[in-house]
């Protein structure tokens, strides 16, 4: 596996998504009809309402982004004057998706054209979902993220799930499973990804989702390092920025 050693060009990301509306009944009528057709295909054993609350957030056409977690590798000197690798993490969170995406674009543009994104299952989910929601919100996709029409070998973003597949496309491997396999510490009080929609709409707790997202960013960053046979970041060198 080719190693990536220039960590300063990397941005580790994770997104949390929910249904575009709290209930199926709140959807515009034309989208209700379209969701009914989709639900009949993807979840024939559920009503359209049940499927909407459980699965709509997975699809960019029927969902929205409420949190984007970002992480950066930097170097700083410790008390002894020795340089150490540091991982800074921040969760961008908002009920206003357009503002959230605009804030994310500002961060992306600061990195320039050499930026590489790192995500778990990013190529199938995070990267295209963000791009689709940007277009729906009338925003220009920043250069570093604009992968539309590019050939696979022209896309240099990193997907830890693809790294683990080694060309085997039969199975999805969860981040939590790889963390366990590689002996990476995980928090036991995290909410599950399937609970995000309820936490957002029923508990009204966006901050809880933001904290959960930041933990996944940290886990993805550490997993990436382990899969490169690089030292993971010391716990005291992981800085969560409010």
Automatic annotation (TrEMBL):
Molecular function per GO: nucleic acid binding
InterPro entries, per database record: 3'-5'_exonuclease_PolB-like (IPR019288), RNaseH-like_sf (IPR012337), RNaseH_sf (IPR036397)
Domain Predicted 3'-5' exonuclease PolB-like: 76-230
Domain of life of the source: Bacteria
Residues annotated as signal peptide: none
Protein name stated in the entry: DNA polymerase elongation subunit (Family B)
Organism: Bernardetia litoralis (strain ATCC 23117 / DSM 6794 / NBRC 15988 / NCIMB 1366 / Fx l1 / Sio-4) (Flexibacter litoralis)
């Amino acid at each position: 596996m080719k190693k990536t050693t220039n960590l300063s060009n990397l941005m580790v990301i994770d997104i949390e998504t929910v249904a575009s509306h709290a209930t199926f009944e709140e959807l515009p009528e034309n989208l209700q009809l379209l969701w009914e057709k989709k639900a009949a295909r993807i979840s024939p054993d559920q009503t359209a309402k049940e499927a909407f609350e459980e699965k709509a957030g997975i699809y960019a056409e029927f969902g929205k982004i409420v949190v984007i977690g970002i992480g950066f590798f930097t170097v700083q000197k410790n008390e002894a004057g020795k340089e150490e690798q540091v991982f800074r993490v921040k969760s961008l969170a908002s009920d206003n998706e357009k503002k959230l995406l605009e804030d994310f674009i500002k961060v992306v543009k600061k990195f320039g054209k050499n930026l590489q994104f790192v995500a778990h299952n990013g190529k199938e989910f995070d990267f295209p979902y963000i791009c689709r929601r940007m277009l729906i919100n009338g925003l220009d996709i920043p250069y570093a993220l604009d992968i539309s029409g590019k050939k696979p070998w022209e896309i240099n973003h990193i997907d830890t799930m693809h790294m683990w597949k080694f060309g085997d496309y039969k199975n999805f491997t969860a981040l939590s499973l790889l963390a366990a396999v590689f002996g990476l510490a995980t928090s036991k009080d995290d909410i599950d990804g399937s609970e995000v929609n309820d936490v957002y709409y029923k508990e009204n707790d966006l901050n809880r989702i933001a904290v959960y997202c930041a933990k996944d960013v940290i886990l993805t960053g550490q997993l990436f390092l382990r899969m490169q046979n690089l030292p993971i970041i010391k716990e005291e060198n992981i800085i969560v920025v409010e």
